[in-house]
C-alpha cells in the first residue's frame, strides 16, 4: 500500500476491533528493527507511521506494510522536525497512541579517539531524540488514559563493553529515562518500557561487520561470526524476535518500567 493510500485508509479500517487500529509512530521505521516492528504492528491491525530521514527508504518500507501507513521524513535530532512529525500525525489521523523509538545510530572508537562529534551525535540520536519524542507524544496519551511507549535500547544500556563508550552512555541514559518515566506515569494508563537486544541482523550490524573488516583485516564471514558468537545462542538476534517483544509490551499493561533483554541469555538482568 502506498503511503498516500495508507493515509486515506487510515480513518477507518481496523479501528472498530477493540485494542486494534491504534495509531503507532515508529521512529527508524524505514529499515532494520524499526521496520520489523512496523510490519508486525501493521499485520496486527494497527495504523503505522514510519519516521526516518531518507524519503526513498521510507517509501519502500511503506509499500511493504499490509495495513494503513503514513511515511513522514524527519531528522529527529531537530526539535522542530520532531514537533512537525507528531503535528502531522495529529492532523491526518489523530494523536499517537503507541510510540516505538527505534531510530538510532552506532559508532565505535577507543576512548581517546571518541571525538566531541561522535559523542554529541550518539547522545543526540540515541538519547535526546527519544526524550523529545516521548515528551511530545505524552500529553494526549495521558489525557486519553492509554498509551504505550517502547524505546529500543540495547544490551549496552545494561553493561559496558570496550570501544563503544558514547553509544553505551547514550543507551544507559535512555534506559534511565524509560525507568523514570515509567515511575512517573505508573497508574496513568501509559506504560514506558525498553527492549535491550544483543546483536541483531540489520543494516546497523552490517556496518559493524564492515568496520571490523576494515580495522582488523578479518573476512566478512569471520567478523559476522564473531558478532554471532556474542549471543550464547550462537547467532544474531532476528529483527522479528525484537518486534515480538515490542508487541508484548504494547499488549500487556502490567509490564512497565522494564528493559527486556533479547540476546539469547548473555546479559541476565
Ligand atoms: P539501522 O538498521 O541502522 O536503522 C536505523 C534507523 O534509524 C533507520 O530507519 C534510520 O533511517 C533511522 N535514523 C537514524 N538516524 C536518524 C535520525 N537522526 N532521525 C530519524 N531517523 C534516524 O539500525 P537497527 O539495527 O535497526 O537499530 C535500531 C535501534 O536498535 C537503534 O536504536 C539501535 O541502537 C538499536 N539496537 C540495534 C542493535 C543491532 O545489533 N542492530 C542492537 C541493539 C540495539 P535514516 O538513516 O534514513 O534516518
Automatic annotation (TrEMBL):
Keywords: Oxidoreductase. The keyword Transferase does not apply. Its EC number is 1.1.1.-. PANTHER family: 3-OXOACYL-(ACYL-CARRIER-PROTEIN) REDUCTASE, 3-OXOACYL-[ACYL-CARRIER-PROTEIN] REDUCTASE FABG. InterPro entries: KR_dom, NAD(P)-bd_dom_sf, Sc_DH/Rdtase_CS, SDR, SDR_fam. Belongs to the short-chain dehydrogenases/reductases (SDR) family. SUPFAM superfamilies: NAD(P)-binding Rossmann-fold domains (SSF51735). It is an enzyme of class 1 (oxidoreductase). Gene3D superfamilies: NAD(P)-binding Rossmann-like Domain. The keyword Oxidoreductase applies. GO terms for molecular function: oxidoreductase activity. Residues 22-198 form the Ketoreductase domain. It comes from the Bacteria. It comes from Streptacidiphilus cavernicola. It holds the Pfam family adh_short_C2. This is SDR family NAD(P)-dependent oxidoreductase.
